[in-house]
Structure formats: C-alpha cells, structure tokens
C-alpha cells in the first residue's frame, strides 16, 4: 500500500473543518491553491491527466468498493487517504447524502499557449453549470486554451468540476486573466458573439487561429472587449426562442469550427 | 379588475395542499391535466402564446410589484388570483426562499404536425435541465414538434419549464408518444445520434423533412429505434472529452440544420 491510510471520526477534527471550508469557499481554495474533486470519476480523470491527489477523503461505505480500490492502487507514494464516517462526509459536502470520495489536487498553472492556438475567452461567467458545459464543449471540440476573467465563478469549484465531467484535465485553464491584454496580444481573429451581431456565425472562417469571446449571462460581453473584436457574430435563430444561453451558444460556435475543419480535411485541402 | 382576487393565509388550506402536490408530483399534474409555472417570465410567456392561467398564486411581497400588476391586468375574466404569505408560498415550493408567483395552466394538447415537419423525438430523457435545454434549442432552431416517450421526465414539471425558459410555449409538445409508431409514420429522414455512429453529422442533408432521435442519458437510443433509423450519426469530437451530454448534442444537431438552411438561402437555392 503505497499511500498513507488514516481514519478520522470526529466532525470537529481540524482537517475536516478545513476540508469543509475548501468545499464551500473559493477564497479558501484559491489561498491554498487547490481544487476539490468530488467522486471517483473526477479523481480518476485527474490522475490519468497526470495530476496529483495528495489528499483523498473516503466515505466509509465507499472504502470497500472495487473501483475505489483500483483508484487507490494507482495513487503515487506519499498520498494520504483518510476514511470518514458517512455523517462527517455529509457535513463536509453540505449534502444530505454524502459523496463517496473527495480529493484535493493542486490548481494547475498552465503555460502560455502557442501564439496561434485557438482559444476561448470568458468574461464574468457566473453560472457553474454554464461554465462547466463550456469547458466540456471546448475540450470535445479540441480548443484547449480557456482564459477566464477575474469576475468568473471559481472554475475549480466542485460544481464547475462536476459540470465539466473531466474537461478541466484536458484543457489549459488560465484563471484571473486580463482579457483585454490577452486579446491585444493575440494575432488571430477575435470573434464576439452578440445577439445583435452584424454577421452570421456561418459566414466566418473559424478554421485558423481564432479567439471566441463569451460574456456574462446577463450583461453580455463588455464594451471594452467588444471594441477589440474583429467581428460581432450572431447565431441565426429562425425560431421563436429569445436566445440560447451562453453555454449553448459556445457549443454551437465551437462545433461550427469542428465542422469547418472536418470539411477542409475531407475535401483534401487540409 | 377582471380577475377574482382572494387571500389565503393558512398553510393547512386545502387549495394550498393541492398546489403543493402539483408542484411536487408529476402524477398529480398529469391527473389534473395542468402544468405549474414558476415566476412572472414563464406566466407571461404562456399568456403571450395564448395559454390560459385560470389560477395564479402570488407571494404577498410580489403583489405590489409593477411587473406583476402588468401581468394581472392582462388576465382574462374569471381567473382567480390568490395572495399567500411568504411562509406558505415557501412551503408550497419546497424552497427556503419563496418564489414570487406560481400559476396553473392546462397542459396543451397539440395537433398532429404536418407530415413533412421536422421534429425531435426524445426517448427516456431523465434530467430536467437537459430536457429544458433541448426544448430551448428546438424552439430557437425552428423545429417545433417534439415527441416524448412515456419514460421521459415530466416535460411540464417546474424544473423543465424553468430550464426551457418559455420554449414550451413556442413548441408543439407531444407527450407519452409511441416513438416507434411515430418513426414508422414519418416519411422523412430518420437520424439517430450515436457515439459510434458510422457517418459524421456534417455529411448529412438536414434541410428537409428530418426527425432527430435522442436517447436516454445513460443508455442512449434503444435498439428498437436504432433499427428504424436511416442513419446513425456521430458528432465528430477532435478533442479529448468523453462525449457531449444529450442537450449539447441536440443543440449541435439542430444548429447544423440552421446552418444548412442559411447556406441554401444565401446561395439563392432556397
């Protein structure tokens, strides 16, 4: 057993209290430089991507499960695995039914992407589900660099990690980015989606170096970033709905890029 | 004041108890043939689409709001508007903070769509957020007929209505549909998304009469419906993610149809 096993029984244990704060408060997570992974799937995705899991917390009931055993067997030496009673785990997660597993992992510090790499810039995205979905779409579409303004919800919060379904570990996530400076540095096409955009998404070449900018759920993209855009693009909506939410809009844009790349490849020009 | 105003103060009032059951249980909603709309936005969307709101329940605090007054002024004669204390409203909604407004509306009974109308068939979709998002995408993309298998979560549940953001009122929603029979009757192209589909979404003509079939979040589309499909299509994913969820997949498919229609229109062939 390469990891260090321990048992915690008291809900008043200092480590338990600190863990509960990390689950709840982005400030604590940022201060400690960690993210909290909930569930075997996320912990596994983190390990597979080469991430570290220095601390793992297990619900007693989960400790005997085969898939948990498989995960623990792959932990590097020196990891600490603490087993907690269900009641304590429930208190930590703030949910009536305790999760099986929590794990702490260092927040990644990604390198600057290659100058021509396609990218997504997110300004003040507030909804964890939306943010996780955008990450998932970006990872699926092969756009690996995501820049987030300081006003975004914590991208490494448990909710965003859950919605991202492991996408976090496929991406280079650049937190607290100065989006104005990032756009200024970027030499590719800068596209902002806008309900009153002047040109259709489908009229743009998205196959090369492109930065997609998506804005806050209510306010949209700020005037400052809009002014830096090469184009304000609109997703045509022939139907009656008011609009797509930002996650759906991002998915449509990112997969229109996939389509263009596929079309180029299949026509032999790629 | 064309509507009938009343005040309810007791949480033990029979009407309050019945309302709480309608909020919570799909069985009760189906038995009564109603849906429960939460919030002014949904109630407004329902009215604008020609729907009826025979019963409206207002949180006391909301009764004085201008936008609520505007809504009430447009209610047809004979509607009953009951004002409830915040504590009673909170009990009804099952949430710590009471919503402003609940309204009951009859579940629509849509006509059979035109034979060539594009459509979405949903098999056993379980997540209310996914279902609402699919409806929103369909409405935005101008695909107005949605057929749901008996195994889908209640499409008129408060959660699905919330996620649909008013899309329900732009669509013809066919509940408890026999999807096998519907596909059998349909003479257009029948497309099923499948992770191991043999052809790319982007190689298909989606501009005409087309039925998109999307399956359960875990199990996918059943073998029976797969056997009826003209093609099993795959959304190409050049990236690392395992898959898109069903709502994102539906959004990508529906907007690929929008793109094709736009391209035809702009090239003068449409």
Automatic annotation (TrEMBL), chains A, B:
Signal peptide (UniProt feature, chain positions): none
**Pfam family, any one:** MRM3-like_sub_bind
Where exactly are the transmembrane stretches of this chain?
none
Q: Where is the MRM3-like substrate binding domain?
A: 13-102
Q: Coiled-coil annotation: which residues?
A: none
Keyword Transferase annotated: yes
Mind listing the UniProt keywords for this protein, alphabetically?
Methyltransferase, Transferase
Q: Which GO terms describe its molecular function?
A: methyltransferase activity
Residue stretches making up the tRNA/rRNA methyltransferase SpoU type domain: 119-255
Q: Name one GO biological process term.
A: methylation
Source domain of life: Bacteria
Q: What is the similarity comment for this entry?
A: Belongs to the class IV-like SAM-binding methyltransferase superfamily. RNA methyltransferase TrmH family.
Give the protein's recorded name: RNA methyltransferase
Q: Which organism is it from?
A: Chromobacterium phragmitis
